[in-house]
Structure formats: C-alpha cells, structure tokens
Design goal:
The protein is an alpha/beta fold. 42% of the residues lie in helices and 23% in strands. A seven-stranded mixed beta sheet has the order 3-2-1-4-5-7-6.
C-alpha cells in the first residue's frame, strides 16, 4: 500500500499550497508538544522543513532528523538547510529506517491524515521513541475547522457530481475526526495522552493568491483542479471566485484553520 496519498511535485509548489501555513502551525504545535535542550528529535513527514527549521530556531536540541515520503520535498529542505543539527532523508512513515528507542521526541506535523494506514505510522512513531519520550502529532480538522478547505470542496460538489465523493474522501481522512488522534495514541499504548485544538489564520491577499496553489501540482486541491476539462475548470474558478469574494470586492480574506493535536508518552 502506498504510504502517502498526498500529491507531491516540487518544494516551491508545496510552499505555496501549504508551507506558509504549516510554518504558522508549527509554532503552536511546538508550544503544545514541547522541546528540551539536548534532545534527539524525529520529524515524521518533514516536507519542506517547516517544523524542523522552526524547532531548530526555538530550541537547543541536539539533532533533528526529518523523514518524508516525497524525494522532491526532501531535496528542497536539504538545499535550504544550513544547520548542522538538521538532516533530511527520504523514507516511509510506516517503515522507518531507525532503530527502536532512538529519539527523545517524535513529532509529526500535517502528515498522518495522508497516510492510508495511519495506525501503522503511529506504531512506528512509538517504536522509535525512547521510554519517557514525547510522541505528538497534529492534523487539520478537515471537516469542521478548515474554512478554506470547505469553501473549495463545497463549491466543487455543488457544480460537479463527481466531486461529492472526492469531498467525502477529503473530509473523512484518517485521524481528522474529534478524538480520533487521542484514541489512536491510547490504542498504540502511549500514556498520559492529551489532545488539543490549535488554530491559525490563513491570510490571502486576493482571489489570485487563493487560486495560485490550486492551479499548481501539489496537494489534493490541485489534483482536483487538474482533473477538470478546460471548460469545467473555468466554470469552477468563476464559482470559487464568487465564494471567495462573498458579495464584496476582491481583496484580502482571512480564514480560520484549526488542527487537532495530540501528545503522549512512550512507555
């Protein structure tokens, strides 16, 4: 089974689609998941490096190892890394090439909902965590807390019967329902499990800024747009523009984006 359902093309595309938001969320996630001097940290699904770089700036960890399924994202992050504590490599969250009990803190930012067998990835995160280590993750509340996501999929589903199933798939991804992360952590045998809701704002300059990543190649939104014939794509773009403007002139918009978060302790 493929261990990631995320459409990954290039680092610049991811930065436009999600990197600018994952950096904002990384700050809140680190506040929640913690960090301590001298730790060896694993960043599972490191992408273009948002969490690893933010953590390195904020703490005196000993090392940060980032692993991601997409070679293009690993190459992008590695090319922008000047911190000797950080290293990135390509790998599978469900079969990580690390020894048991290797890390003092195991973190995952916006990844588990794109892993078809998410529970297997959680088991791997626990396996590589040392006894007493914190294991933590965060994923978007795709159905109830991610406004830009709902605008996109609700508009698509109103126009395109085929998009109804795509909307259902994207609003019911693994680990995105209330309490699902915490339940998975407990089922994996992690202790002192605590969950939370982390909220950022997604700020767009105008509809062109909102649309730009959708016409790229990275992520599920772009995958849908690229599946449309030219006439249907133009119709969808016009409808989405109307939903974005929402009765006012085009210009800045700010949408709430909430993510479920969980942390636990490895036994």
């Amino acid at each position: 089974m493929q261990s990631s359902s995320f459409n990954a093309a290039d680092g610049d595309g991811y930065e436009l689609a999600m990197g600018r938001w994952s950096r904002r969320l990384a700050e809140l996630f680190i506040d929640f998941a913690g960090a301590a001097d001298g730790e060896a940290v694993l960043d599972v699904g490191s992408g273009t490096g948002s969490l690893a770089f933010t953590l390195a700036k904020r703490s005196k960890v000993k090392s940060i190892k980032g692993i991601d399924f997409a070679p293009a994202y690993v190459a992008y992050a590695a090319a922008r890394n000047s911190d000797p504590r950080i290293a990135f490599e390509t790998g599978d969250a469900c079969a990580m090439p690390f020894a048991d009990r290797s890390f003092d803190r195991v973190l995952s930012l916006l990844v588990l909902h794109f892993v078809p067998d998410a529970n297997k990835a959680v088991a791997e995160m626990k396996r590589v965590a040392r006894p007493g280590a914190t294991v933590a993750a965060t994923v978007w509340d795709a159905r109830g807390g991610y406004v830009a996501n709902r605008i996109f999929y609700d508009t698509a589903a109103a126009l395109d019967p085929a998009a109804v199933a795509r909307r259902a798939q994207n609003l019911t991804r693994p680990m995105t329902r209330p309490g699902e992360l915490a339940a998975a952590w407990r089922a994996a045998g992690l202790t002192d499990v605590r969950d939370a809701l982390l909220t950022i704002r997604m700020d767009f300059e105008n509809f062109a800024d909102f649309w730009a990543p959708l016409s790229g190649k990275d992520g599920p939104h772009a995958a849908y747009v690229n599946s449309l014939a030219p006439d249907k794509r133009a119709k969808f773009q016009d409808a989405l523009n109307a939903a974005y403007c929402d009765g006012e002139a085009d210009g800045p918009r700010s949408y709430a984006a909430s993510a479920w978060a969980v942390r636990g302790t490895a036994p």
